[in-house]
Amino acid sequence: MNSAGNRESGIGNRDGLRGRLLEREPLSRHTSWRVGGPADRYYEPADRDDLIAFVRGLPADEPILWIGLGSNLLVRDGGVRGTVLSLHGALDNLTLHSDSRFPIPDSRLLEAEAGVHCARMAKYATGEGLAGAGFFAGIPGTVGGALAMNAGAHGGETWNHVSEVEVLFRDGRSAWLPRSEFRYGYRHVEWPQGMVGFLAARLSFTPDTTGTAAQDMKQWLAKRKATQPVGKPSAGSTFRNPPGDHAARLIESCGLKGHRIGGAQVSELHANFIITDEGARAADVEALIAQLRGIVQEKTGIELIPEVKVVGEAA
């Protein structure tokens, strides 16, 4: 048993599994807010095949939570019952298709596994002379997370580029499904019954005929660094932007920049970001989110919808 009180289980070394299985693993180690209680079980698969084998062997009623970089996620202080699957570092292959199996006019297909960092994919695509991928550099998560929530930045959205996705079902089956099998909108995706997560995606991008894609991406990253609390514990944007407005403007108009509850604070740099101090609790973040929603609705009549996913049990 280590100093954090969790232990490595021998379960992950049996039945041909090659990944690492931990019990009572603190999820504060795996979320960008650096808060959150323990997972009953936490599995880091060795690769795609190991992940599929692990899921196939789970009890049918075992709760499963998939995470990548742990951004856009608030884990309550009581932790998560069931099994957390961490894909980042395991499903990290990128491939540029040069054939015409999927004839999309004037475009090429980039295949990315679910654990690939969005920023890495953006730089890879841009380096290969493709346009339209640069906005992914501003998404602080993995491809799997971007697919799950239709993440976007700088006017781009993930599912606008999706050709098809590889998914995993609860019984361990995997399949490539076309975009038409999914319903998606602003920061929202609905998927087929029985599906538990994304394994990979094939995304369509056009050639960079103007030669400006790399420079555009650099400018976006520079703007992000100047206007967002990059490098501080946060989960990216806390709320969705209401139609025709911006959550940050609404929060700031209510005088809430810098507002704090416990170890959680509204960023002074960007009002739609909540940052955490060392020693912060998930309860501080959740209480601050609730208070911001209440004050903004009271003063403006607009209901802010959280973009972050809240999981787990209160302490």
Topology, please?
Elements: E1 7-8, E2 20-26, E3 38-44, H1 48-56, E4 64-67, E5 73-75, E6 80-86, E7 94-97, E8 108-113, H2 118-127, E9 130-131, H3 143-149, E10 152-153, E11 156-157, E12 162-169, E13 174-178, E14 183-185, E15 188-190, E16 195-207, H4 213-227, H5 247-253, E17 260-261, E18 264-266, E19 274-276, H6 282-300, E20 309-311
Parallel strand pairs: 3-6, 4-6, 5-20
Antiparallel strand pairs: 1-2, 2-3, 7-8, 8-16, 9-16, 10-11, 12-13, 12-16, 14-15, 17-18, 18-19
General description of the model:
By secondary structure, the chain is an alpha+beta fold. It has 3 domains: 7-86, Uridine Diphospho-n-acetylenolpyruvylglucosamine Reductase, domain 2 (2-Layer Sandwich); 94-214, Uridine Diphospho-n-acetylenolpyruvylglucosamine Reductase, domain 3, CATH 3.30.465.10; 229-311, UDP-N-acetylenolpyruvoylglucosamine reductase, C-terminal domain (Uridine Diphospho-n-acetylenolpyruvylglucosamine Reductase, domain 1, Alpha-Beta Complex). Helix content is 21%, strand content 28%. Strands 7, 8, 9, 12, 13 and 16 form a 6-stranded antiparallel β-sheet that branches. A hairpin with a 4-residue loop joins strand 12 and strand 13 (174-178). The two termini are 23 Å apart.
Overview features:
315 residues, alpha+beta, Uridine Diphospho-n-acetylenolpyruvylglucosamine Reductase, domain 2, Uridine Diphospho-n-acetylenolpyruvylglucosamine Reductase, domain 3, 6-stranded antiparallel beta sheet, 5-stranded mixed beta sheet, 21% helix, globular
